[in-house]
Amino acid sequence: MTSVYQQAQREGQSVVRAAILDAAKRLLVAEGPASLTVRRISGEVGCSTKVIYTLFGGKDGLSEALWLEGFARFERRLLRVSPEGDALDRLYAGLMAYRDYALSEPDYYRVMFQGAMPGFKPGEAAVEAAKRTFDLLVHGVAHCMEAGVLRGAGGAGAVEIADVLWMAIHGAVSLEISCFFDEDVAARRYRLLCTSVLTPFLAARSATDEATDERDMS
């Protein structure tokens, strides 16, 4: 019987690497962090421990690679957002893509954002690489502000608005992948949440709304 490693080996080193990371993810979800040993993972994939040491440098390197793989997949999903529509349409599409990624890759999402690997701390370079995904959200907000469809209520800039959006949508998808909401209900709630968070920053608002903002900021 052909092992996962043997099959991946025929297709190239990048496939071997992906196969090892997917095996590590499966073990993490099924058996917990204690299962993430080089020997256990190599047995799951059907390769020698030397292969894992060569590709990742050991358990710490593998853990960081697993974390980064989640962000790489996340970034690819966000970059597939259609360029059609205006700046606000694209921003909404990006927010929907965030939820779509979390639901399609919940195990990686837990590794990335929910501390699935206790004690793991990514290196500085890894953190910088991961921040590229957040930069996509910041750029989406900035484009809306440049287009005049969003404005910074109370002087908020693109980064601050993006922070608020991220805090909100992260909370929503974390509850959903933890099964606190049925999918159809969660989808409606998620759209309502995104609209509610963005509404105070929409450019076309009344003087009464702006006066309320000023009172709230004081």
Label this structure with key terms.
2 domains; mainly alpha; 218 residues; Arc Repressor Mutant, subunit A; disordered C terminus; 73% helix; Tetracycline Repressor, domain 2; 0% strand
Question: What is the topology?
Answer:
Layout: H1 4-11, H2 13-31, H3 38-45, H4 49-56, H5 59-79, H6 87-104, H7 106-113, H8 124-146, H9 158-177, H10 183-198, H11 207-217
Helix pairs in contact: 1-2, 2-3, 2-5, 3-4, 4-5, 5-6, 5-7, 5-8, 6-7, 6-8, 6-9, 8-9, 9-10
Word description of this protein:
The chain has 218 residues and is an all-alpha fold. It has two domains: 1-57, Homeodomain-like (Arc Repressor Mutant, subunit A), CATH 1.10.10.60; 70-217, Tetracycline Repressor, domain 2 (Orthogonal Bundle), CATH 1.10.357.10. 73% of the residues lie in helices and 0% in strands. The chain contains eleven helices and no strands. The protein is elongated. The chain starts with a helix and ends with a helix. Mean pLDDT is 86; it is low at 206-218.
Q: Average pLDDT, to the nearest integer?
A: 86
Count of discrete domains:
2
CATH class category of the largest domain: Mainly Alpha
Give the low-pLDDT segments.
Answer: 206-218
Percent strand: under 5%
Could you name the CATH homologous superfamily of the largest domain?
Answer: Tetracycline Repressor, domain 2
The ordered H/E elements are: HHHHHHHHHHH
Gross morphology: elongated
CATH architectural group of the largest domain: Orthogonal Bundle
The portion of residues assigned to helices is over 70%
Number of helices: 11
